[in-house]
Each structure stands twice: as C-alpha cells, then as structure tokens.
Design a protein that fits this description.
It is a single chain. This protein is mostly helical.
Length: about 90
C-alpha cells in the first residue's frame, strides 16, 4: 500500500509543473505535498487506533510527532497547517 501511495505522489508531482525559480510555485507545491503527507499519516493513525496491536501505541505516538513537526514547519513558512486551502 505504501508503495502505491509513493507512486501516486510521484505521478502527481510529474503532472505538476514547478517553477523552481519562483518562490510561490515552490511554496504552493510544497504545501500540497505536505497536506497529502498529513492526510496519509492521519489515515494510518486512524487505522492503527481501529485495530490495535502490541506496538500500536508507539507507532501512533511516532506518527503524531511527525504530524506535529510537519504542521509546525508549515506554520513557520506561512502555510495553512489545516490544509483547508489558501
């Protein structure tokens, strides 16, 4: 499943033209990518909570820390960490 998600992300990136010399283009692309990653991480957390295993708590904790760090990064760079749009 992760492999499929990575392929989807790579495909989406290939479809988007990113003007690397334009801040706003890179900023928007990065915001979109981070939002996809946040949704993916949150889906994993939700799935782990629905079917707990012996290590679920530590994995959930790790994913939640990643989510916090990504949201902090987004706030620092003026992005909407809720991913509700611009």
């Amino acid at each position: 499943m992760i492999h499929s998600e990575q392929q989807d992300v790579m495909r989406a990136e290939a479809e988007n033209d990113i003007a690397l010399d334009q801040f706003e283009s890179v900023h928007n692309h990065l915001h979109q990518r981070l939002c996809r990653e946040l949704r993916s991480l949150q889906n994993r957390v939700d799935a782990l909570r629905q079917s707990p295993t012996i290590h679920s708590a530590s994995i959930v904790s790790t994913y939640e820390r990643l989510i916090r760090k990504k949201r902090d990064f987004m706030e620092h760079w003026g992005m909407d960490p809720s991913c509700s749009g611009r």
